[in-house]
Amino acid sequence: MEKVAVLGAGSWGTALALVLADNGHNVHLWTHRENLAEEINRAHTNEKYLKDVKLPTSIQANHDLKTVVEDAGHVVLVVPTKAMREVCAQLKQVLNQKVIITHASKGIEPGTYKRVSEVMREEIPSNLYEDIVVLSGPSHAEEVSLRQPTTVTVSSEKLEVAEEVQDLFINRQFRVYTSPDLVGVELGGALKNIIALGAGISDGLGYGDNAKAALITRGLAEIARLGTSMGANPLTFSGLTGIGDLIVTCTSSHSRNWRAGNKLGKGHPLEDVLEQMGMVVEGVRTTKAAFQLAQDQGVEMPITSGIYRILFEAAEPRDVVDELMTRIRRHEMEDLTNILDEKMND
Ligand SMILES: NC(=O)C1=CN([C@@H]2O[C@H](COP(=O)(O)OP(=O)(O)OC[C@H]3O[C@@H](n4cnc5c(N)ncnc54)[C@H](OP(=O)(O)O)[C@@H]3O)[C@@H](O)[C@H]2O)C=CC1
Ligand SMILES: O=C(CO)COP(=O)(O)O
């Protein structure tokens, strides 16, 4: 079995390390905190990020990056998007062999509007990797760590490389599909976190399931609108990394984005919410990136704009909901059919 280096021992990196170890791979897990590496190797736990989960004893944790990546055939990056550029810069200093690089992060870089794989390609010399693969889908770490049935999608520009990563992760509880649409897979996973913040806000305001369904449905429409304008296949958003991840994130208290939105809807200040979360809430930075991007691309994203104003301009959530409900009347599908017509005529 392969040596696999997993970089990032948060909830998702630890859960993916568990899947890889269950598959019999030689898993080395990197954390930049020496005390966490010690806990994982001694107690086979990661209490801060995966409470009450017993990890496979075969997982070897280390805070030394060079040791972790040495002789690995695969490197799996699972750090928050805001840390990705920095960790890639560290990785290129210690990587001495060609590997397959997979990332499982969900975000867009504010300012540059770059997807995670674009950031990676900027920071890591291309002679150091076969290809860059993204792994994404409806996959709460808590449930994966309990070996509950989960499906995800892997995508890369070279499908045969995505298939190698599919083989690395797939097992009876963790079913992995492939997709040729790297752009759509990355954007679906990133943008759904914005709508999940909105779903949490809606629940925090005391609104019901009708409002949640409206948010998910119209949120998907604007995610697909922006994604398609950035080169994604619109059909990807009807798959696991689009509607699938939207559903699992907007309807679950496992979601950090939903939980953060819920507290915002109850009137808690954003800085307090993020401080108390203790884990990354990717949707906050992604809302900023998507808001800027939508303006630059001339793409209408009313829900994202509303969430942006709540997060960064102190808009009252109830006022934002009222504005969304009283917008000029529209046909429901005209924009998507226009996009599909354009793609068919390309
Ligand atoms: N959790 C989940 O269920 C899922 C998460 N994801 C995605 O996975 C990505 C990682 O998130 P997740 O694991 O949940 O996040 P967590 O907040 O659970 O953990 C983040 C981890 O990254 C580490 N980290 C943060 N900054 C740096 C840095 N500069 N250098 C090195 N390590 C750093 C943290 O270390 P420290 O403790 O020192 O801060 C921590 O170990 C996100 O993009 C998320 O959207 C995708 C699917 C499911
Ligand atoms: O991406 C996830 C599930 O697919 C986890 O979502 P959160 O980051 O909101 O916890």
Automatic annotation (TrEMBL):
What PROSITE patterns has UniProt attached to this entry?
NAD_G3PDH
Give GO terms for biological process.
carbohydrate metabolic process; glycerol-3-phosphate biosynthetic process; glycerol-3-phosphate catabolic process; glycerophospholipid metabolic process; phospholipid biosynthetic process
Q: Where does sn-glycerol 3-phosphate bind?
A: K106, G137, S139, K192, D245, S255, R256, N257
Q: Which UniProt keywords apply?
A: Cytoplasm, Lipid biosynthesis, Lipid metabolism, NAD, NADP, Nucleotide-binding, Oxidoreductase, Phospholipid biosynthesis, Phospholipid metabolism
Domain Glycerol-3-phosphate dehydrogenase NAD-dependent N-terminal: from-to ranges: 3-161
Give me the residues that bind substrate, please: K106, R256, N257
> Where does this protein reside within or beyond the cell?
Cytoplasm
**Pfam families in the cross-refs:** NAD_Gly3P_dh_C, NAD_Gly3P_dh_N
Q: Which Gene3D superfamilies match?
A: N-(1-d-carboxylethyl)-l-norvaline Dehydrogenase, domain 2, NAD(P)-binding Rossmann-like Domain
Known catalysed reaction(s)? sn-glycerol 3-phosphate + NADP(+) = dihydroxyacetone phosphate + NADPH + H(+); sn-glycerol 3-phosphate + NAD(+) = dihydroxyacetone phosphate + NADH + H(+)
Q: Does the keyword Mitochondrion apply?
A: no
Q: Where is the active site?
A: K192
Give the binding site residues for NADPH.
Answer: S11, W12, H32, R33, Y49, K106, A141, R256, V280, E282
Where the record annotates domain Glycerol-3-phosphate dehydrogenase NAD-dependent C-terminal, the positions are 181-321
Q: Which EC numbers characterise this protein's activity in its record?
A: 1.1.1.94
Family, per the entry? Belongs to the NAD-dependent glycerol-3-phosphate dehydrogenase family.
Q: What is this protein called?
A: Glycerol-3-phosphate dehydrogenase [NAD(P)+]
